[in-house]
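Tutorial handout. Part one gives the primary structure; part two gives the three-dimensional structure as tokens.
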Amino acid sequence: MFDTLMLLFGPALGFRLLGLLGISRFASWQASAVHGLAVMLVATATAHFAPSGVTVMPSHDDLTALVPPFVPFPHAIVYVTGVLELLGAAGLVRRKTRPTAGVGLVVLFVLLLPANVYAAVEDIPFDGVPATPLWFRIPEQLVFISVALWAAPTVPRRLLKAIRPSAGDTAAAGPHRA
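Part two.
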């Protein structure tokens, strides 16, 4: 049940230790957590492409079973989400693309929430292990969303400014014409 969280927190702690040893890339908890999320995403994305005979991790078929029945093309969706996880991980490791990757991952994690709820409510086993209870799945997903948001601290401000410009911004734009 704690496997995925360990895939996030273990590498994050390791990266932070490297930061304390002088590697400037991991000089903050934020950078270390974001890189830990990238490691977790690479590991979880790998399962999206794993054949059913693999026993060291969940397989593509295990993940397909988690897709709610109202979602069309479940096999394709599992492949697409695996690619999106890999792209998100790659985006997180580059400082320049980190905010965009963070926002994209938040959207992905929110869209994956129904699959987590469905799997818990329907008690669908995962990789031969009983289903993770809903009381754990939802907070776990919130942790992933929080770290992804932490990767993109400036994007929400930019989005808010684009949605609701300040009075100075509208005055500078001049009168509106119909």
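Part three, for discussion. Helices lie at 3-20, 29-47, 60-65, 74-93, 98-121, 134-151, 154-163, 167-173. The two ends are 58 Å apart (CA to CA).
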